[in-house]
């Protein structure tokens, strides 16, 4: 008689425990502090990037056999279709990145698109495992590319929400480290599992990592959501020294320091019409920032460099050293393992700012890339030199890859300070990182074409020289504009004493600058009159 009542009671208890885990408007979820902590969010974001790259690389050793044995592609066409599938992946990554960034910034929570990306990755993996036609393989690669765009964009945006610009470098360095570990480990594990256990076990391994990824993403509470119960989570650091900022319409807006304190000049520039609101998506408006454009150039440089190496090095070592595919795979360890220094570079960029690390990274990377042209003989000496130069390439690339992501965040914060009403409370971090991901995907498409075409038409020496020139081309612009125009900064510092007497400066913090009626301190009546007459 009591069985139905006991069942209803048990069901109600389970539902109550579930709500305790997720929380409600009146009561915070269980383990809120841990699930929204910086270390746990970093772990979840790093693991999601690891899973995405791991699942991408896990099937690399399997794909040629799947094309020939399961789909029936002729052995001579296997390389062509492998390249096509890589291009399809990069194209999906390119198209999906800005769209995903816009969606993530507009949505109430980043968790929804984050989980959607995981569903895409699971569907793509299942389709790859069961594919018997080229069409299904292409669709699976498209889904995998879209998933990659979501994972990278939202993972970096979640970190930005939680840690702020003062600590973002070290955390992005950890994300890059997770990418490097997955890049090294995935093909090795995929090849061993396929050789020892078989085709389907490779994908079972993939779904094990997907299952762990699902658990971690569901357990995490992002900063936006956690603030509902604990307003202190993810708030900006205490204010620092203010500087004068120009309006959104200025192309030479002054750079703010790394602190979150700034000032708004209530008197617009003469001869300019002040437009407080734009009608274009933020990711398009942000392209007016020279700082952001130079940071995006760094994204495409690293992608072109690695994309060209991936396309050319296997053929080069086969022709020069008579190495097979196994040797060609091992030589990439020399390029990837030195990238493990990325967290240390990120901490240094947080401490000193990204400017000179980006400049030094460009110049230092050029040197070993150009010196690769000296490898011209099949000798032990040239083999050692080749591996050492690749190791220096991988290490020196980190000097600018991690700091340019710091610069992306700082540049978008500058735009948000100039026009807080337009960017709103949610900001535009995801859209900025989406642009970075778009440029990286573009580099993945251009890099193999660049490397392959130049090697075929002009030779190995010219190819390495052209890549070296590309690396160094951004050094001077980066020295001038990374972190803000260096000449404008010096001018502002020299006039700091004079500027303190100006009555039109109103000091605001990042949170106070958000578009709420009570947030902005009232300037004096003269400043209001000057602003009204200018408009």
TrEMBL record:
This is Major facilitator superfamily (MFS) profile domain-containing protein. Keywords: Membrane, Transmembrane, Transmembrane helix, Transport. It comes from the Eukaryota. SUPFAM superfamilies: MFS general substrate transporter. One of its GO terms (molecular function) is transmembrane transporter activity. The chain crosses the membrane at residues 40-63, 83-104, 116-136, 142-160, 172-194, 200-219, 292-317, 329-349, 356-376, 388-406, 427-450, 462-488. It is found in: Membrane. Residues 41-496 form the Major facilitator superfamily (MFS) profile domain. The keyword NAD does not apply. Residues 492-504 have a biased composition (Basic and acidic residues). It is a multi-pass membrane protein. Residues 236-259, 492-535 are annotated as: Disordered. One of its GO terms (cellular component) is membrane.
């Amino acid at each position: 008689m009591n069985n139905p009542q006991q069942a209803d009671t048990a069901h109600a208890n389970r539902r109550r425990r579930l709500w305790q885990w997720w929380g409600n408007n009146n009561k915070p979820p269980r383990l809120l502090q841990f699930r929204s902590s910086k270390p746990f969010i970093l772990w979840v974001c790093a693991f999601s990037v690891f899973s995405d790259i791991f699942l991408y690389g896990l099937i690399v050793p399997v794909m040629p056999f799947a094309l020939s044995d399961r789909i029936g592609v002729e052995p001579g066409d296997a390389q062509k279709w492998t390249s096509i599938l890589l291009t399809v992946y990069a194209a999906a990554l390119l198209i999906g990145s800005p769209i995903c960034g816009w969606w993530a910034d507009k949505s109430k929570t980043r968790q929804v698109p984050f989980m959607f990306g995981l569903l895409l990755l699971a569907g793509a993996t299942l389709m790859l495992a069961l594919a018997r036609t080229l069409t299904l393989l292409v669709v699976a690669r498209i889904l995998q590319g879209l998933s990659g765009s979501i994972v990278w964009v939202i993972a970096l945006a979640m970190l930005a929400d939680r840690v702020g610009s003062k600590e973002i470098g070290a955390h992005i360095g950890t994300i890059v480290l997770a990418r490097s570990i997955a890049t090294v480990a995935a093909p090795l594990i995929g090849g061993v599992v396929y050789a020892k256990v078989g085709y389907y076990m490779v994908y079972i391994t993939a779904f094990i990592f997907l299952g762990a990824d699902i658990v971690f993403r569901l357990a995490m509470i992002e900063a936006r959501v956690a603030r509902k119960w604990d307003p202190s989570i993810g708030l900006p650091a205490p204010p620092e020294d203010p500087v004068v900022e120009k309006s959104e319409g200025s192309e030479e807006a002054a750079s703010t320091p790394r602190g979150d304190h700034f000032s708004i000049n209530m008197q617009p520039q003469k001869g300019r019409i002040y437009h407080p609101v734009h009608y274009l998506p933020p990711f398009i408006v942000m392209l007016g920032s020279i700082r952001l454009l130079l940071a995006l150039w760094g994204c495409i440089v690293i992608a072109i460099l690695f994309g060209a190496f991936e396309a050319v090095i296997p053929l080069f070592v086969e022709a020069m050293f008579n190495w097979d595919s196994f040797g060609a795979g091992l030589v990439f360890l020399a390029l990837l393992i030195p990238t493990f220094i990325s967290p240390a570079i990120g901490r240094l960029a947080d401490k000193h700012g990204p400017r000179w690390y980006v400049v030094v990274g460009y110049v230092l990377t050029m040197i070993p890339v150009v010196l690769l042209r000296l490898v011209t003989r099949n000798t032990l000496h040239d083999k050692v030199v080749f591996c050492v130069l690749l190791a220096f390439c991988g290490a020196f690339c980190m000097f600018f890859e991690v700091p340019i992501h710091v610069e992306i965040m700082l540049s978008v914060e500058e735009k948000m300070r100039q026009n807080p009403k337009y960017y709103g409370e949610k900001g535009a971090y995801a859209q900025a990182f989406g642009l970075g991901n778009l440029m990286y995907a573009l580099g993945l498409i251009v890099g193999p074409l660049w490397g392959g075409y130049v090697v075929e038409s002009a030779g190995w020496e010219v190819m390495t020289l052209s890549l070296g020139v590309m690396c160094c081309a951004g050094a001077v612009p980066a020295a001038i504009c990374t972190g803000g125009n260096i000449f404008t900064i010096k001018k502002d510092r020299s006039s700091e004493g004079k500027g303190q007497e100006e009555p039109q400066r109103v000091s605001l913090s990042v949170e106070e600058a958000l578009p709420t009626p009570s947030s902005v301190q009232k300037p004096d009546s003269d400043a209001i009159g000057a602003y009204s007459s200018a408009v």
